[in-house]
Automatic annotation (TrEMBL), chains A, B:
Gene3D superfamilies: Dihydrofolate Reductase, subunit A. It comes from Streptomyces buecherae. This is Dihydrofolate reductase family protein. InterPro entries: DHFR-like_dom_sf, RibDG_C, Riboflavin_Biosynth_HTPR. GO terms for biological process: riboflavin biosynthetic process. GO terms for molecular function: 5-amino-6-(5-phosphoribosylamino)uracil reductase activity.
Length: 200, 200
């Protein structure tokens, strides 16, 4: 059964996916570049990852089982559409208020959805078929969680205290939120990979 | 070589050791009671822990190697001095502005220090001898970290989002703070035990 997951969201020990004023990315994403095993990138703008063997084994398995992504318009714009294709080499569903002018038609790289998170996830599920859907960005993850659409939370926990910034689920409404697991605990060397199931 | 550590500090996935308005303790400390292996308590007021086998193996090893604790006066008062002896069965050094009236003398249960964190840790080191010193409470951990006295951070990571409350190191001054490790990653079943080394 395919699932909807946040994938491997890199987070600081104090719960931030970005530091104050968009700082801390060098510290958070150090594990993307300090290993021995290369993971190819399908994006012309994003270099391959170089991660530890333990991290690579997990990412390869999960990437192979991911059939579509859901992202927000902000991430799409900020990355300049990853130069045309997402690094994970899958179709990316972009939730937006308005389709960008330079992409009048959906294609195998990008699909645009303008009528809300449920529709975006449904469209991604169609594209993914038997495979999983990964949701990227705190705001998208929050909307999925609050709409009851999220099955799994994936965290790549990095040993740094950032002291502020953007949290895993952004401005989450009702708390506490409980999870089961972790179903996966992998020591990636300087990063700990954890997978939790949303309790429904 | 003995070290100064926060021990096993229970923390939510979003980085809180207590929820908003002192809530969330039932969720945070569920792992203290939902396992099969009993860990005795030396406190007449605190029941034994019942934790998973994996958690028990770690706690037993660490408790056996802990020679003294450092706590703040707030925790001492809040727990009513644990009824006379800390559950971990070690001497507890209490950092306070003023010695409590009902304890005119230090003894094997409690030692009072009024002249700051460096003095409290030094006193605890004397008591601990070859063993480790554990520092409890966010405010004590913060003071130790900022004074360069902390060697290790121990986290028992629990899969709940609390959305606010008290953070691991309280109102920490300079950020970011970097750690090495984790040196330990143990899946305790619903709790993940992590040990990090303070980068100096």
């Amino acid at each position: 059964m395919s699932k909807v997951t946040t994938g491997a969201t890199t987070m600081s020990l104090d719960g931030y996916i970005a530091g104050p004023e968009e700082s801390g990315f060098d510290l958070l994403f150090q594990w993307y570049g300090d290993g021995d095993v290369e993971i190819p990138s399908a994006s012309p703008d994003v270099p391959p990852l170089r991660v530890s063997a333990a991290s690579a084994e997990l990412l390869r398995r999960e990437w192979a089982n991911t059939g579509a992504l859901v992202v927000g318009r902000r991430l799409y714009d900020m990355t300049n559409a990853w130069g045309g294709r997402h690094p994970m080499n899958v179709t990316t569903v972009v939730l937006t208020h308005q389709r960008p002018d330079d992409r009048p038609e959906d294609d195998e790289n990008f699909v645009f959805v303008t009528d809300g998170i449920e529709s975006a996830v449904a469209r991604a599920r169609e594209v993914a078929g038997e495979k999983d859907v990964a949701v990227n960005g705190g705001e998208m993850a929050r909307q999925c969680l609050e709409a009851g659409l999220l099955d799994e939370v994936g965290v790549a926990l990095v040993p740094v205290i950032l002291g502020g910034g953007k949290t895993l689920f952004g401005e989450l409404g009702p708390v506490p939120v409980l999870f089961d697991g972790p179903s996966t605990v992998i020591d990636g060397g300087g990063v700990t990979h954890l997978r939790y199931q949303v309790r429904k």
